[in-house]
Amino acid sequence: EFLKGKNIRECWPKLDSISRKLLCYQLFLGLALLHKKGLVHRDLKPSNLLVVSRRKAELPLQLKIMDLGLAQSASPLDNESVGGTVDYLAPELIRKEKPDARADFYACGIILCELFLGRPPFADPDPAATLARHQEAPLPRLPIRNLKDKEFWQHLIGRLAAKNREERPRDGFQVLDWLLEDPALRKKLARSDESSAGWCRTLLPRFWSASSMHLEKSLSAEVPATIVRAQKELNDKSDLGKTTSFPSVRLAIDIENRFQPYPRLSERELADWLASGFGVSQKTAKLLWRKTSGEVSLIEFELGFWQKKKLFRWNGAGWEWKENTLMDIPLSPASQKELLALTATLPDEERKLLARLSFFLGFITLEEIFKTGLWEQNNLKLLLKNLQQAGFLLPMGENRLAFSRPGLREALYSTLKDRKNNHKKIWDFFAQSNRTADKTRSFEWEFQAAGAGLWEEAASQALVAAGEAGAKEDFRTENWYLNRSLKWVQKLPAGSRQNGLFLEIYRERGNFFARQGELDKAISEYTCQLKMASKLKKLEEEADACNRLGNQFRQIPDYPKAEQNLKKALALLEKLGKEFEVSRTYNNLGATYAHQLRIEEALFHYTKAAEIQRRLGVTKNLAGTLNNIGVAHMMADRFQEAVGFFREALQLDRKLDDKEQTAVCLNNLGFILAQRGEFEGAK
Q1: For position 38, what pLDDT does the model report?
Q2: Residues forming beta bridges with residue 468, ordered by sequence position
Q3: CA 24 – CA 104 distance, rounded (Å)
Q4: Which of 243, 286, 540, 556 is at a distance of 20 to 30 A from 668, taking alpha carbons?
């Protein structure tokens, strides 16, 4: 890289305070990432810090750290020489101890001191005297007039150039924190647009070592593709023409990290780097790794793409992420081109087979490929073997295969000409073999059904996947699938939309938001369920929606609306003769009145519920209702009546071996006995 600029010593006197801190910020950011790669510069001095002017950029001054000639080794120095320049050597290097990042921080402290003094603080015509001063002499006071600036720089330089390296900063990020305490610097950085996308290409940790021998193999798949080469390759292939939009495909398999000739990170390395540098959660790191298999070039493309979509940005003090939307973001166009160019190097027959196999999101078996009729059998085994050797497919045991580069599957999907027909073939195979009941792969059934235009099936499978995620308490994934289920069912033709699937989706979405405590959203979904049920004249669904709305309004609380909806539900259920549901609605109404301390009305409705439940013989529900009646009497200070109901409820709960409700009843009885002064019984 040709750099036209001046060293930092020439620029410093003309800079204002904020520009000086900005250059320091860039210096310690660069050092922080250099140190994370296990390197120590060991020869920092003003002539190795170049300041480049960029007139049209948000940050007009860019600092470049140069001359890493001594940074190749972080091993102890030999007995005959001291590496580096004597004016900036840390005391431990003079003692020939093993260098670490703190030696660079010492040099930075001396450089900053020199920039204010106009000369190195410990310089002497005799190099031996200079080395002695580094180990013994105190730092001079800085000639700065502004007291606030003087205090800041004196403290910073004092920490950086401490004689004892244990007193210096532990890493560059700690120095960045000190600098960012200045709100003016935070504001300046927040206006800059060169936060992540431009920096990621240089900041990404590179833990690998070059293996040129592996790049010389004859397998075309082992030639790392570039964007320039990608454009050339894609233009040469009629069926791999450039596409403007790609479908959003959720990648769901985990591939074990294996040797590849491409520079790549393991899942752990990527997660650690994202967490320390960007504050990213494990889930987001896992998603990025699934899309890229940890390949560095693809990671750089994806992070740049995510920033372009404003999914994460630098605010001057830290990174802001919109993690909830990342799951639905397709592979970046740059990554797609690189992956498609890679497949373009394969023979036509193998490439077309690979494109058809891209529909299997999880694993692939020979039997599945045969039965779906996606490919003739005559040379299938040989083609699959070639694709394994080329690194496109991984053997996963039990005659199963999976894509070794998950992002490739998404890119290949866009190249097929008859996608809908292929989706239909796979869906028919699943349906005929009755594998739709296999909930562990519901995401795949949803994908195939949606691709075939079977919107109702796609919505149903998305609901199943949402249920699986909810059972694992993976609420973000559950919400994602619930949104997809609504998206698919809305694609049904207008005339065929009047079906029960809408009702189920609205109900499940309402339940999700209710569990998350987002009452307004839950009410919105239940209202949609109510309107759809009224339109379809499905009285039972209408009553269910009213019941759910009543319970949500009670929690807000909006008691008039809660009462209105519950009374409407009660009328509908009595009309339908649904006695059990009627008893539950009486219970809900009783709770609504109890919340308002309208005890007599609460008792009336609880008693109605209990009468129905006794008649139906639903013991478990009856025990809960009796407990509610006891609580209502207790609220009215009618302890004797309350004790009777609690004891009856306790007897039923013990009979049912319901330990949780038994404990509730015992607790209520203990409270009442304590109120009556019967402390032994209360205990």
Answers
A1: 78
A2: none
A3: 13
A4: 556
